[in-house]
Design brief:
- It is built from one helix and no strands.
- It has one helix at 10-24.
- The longest helix is centred in the last third of the chain and has 15 residues, at 10-24.
- The protein is mostly helical.
Length: 25
């Protein structure tokens, strides 16, 4: 899945990626 990130949404994107990685393991 590709995630489009904007300069002002970098923090949210990083948090989402961390959550996804934790779920996937």
């Amino acid at each position: 899945m590709q995630v489009l990130v904007r300069d002002n949404n970098v923090d949210q994107a990083l948090r989402a990626l961390k959550k996804k990685m934790q779920r996937e393991g």
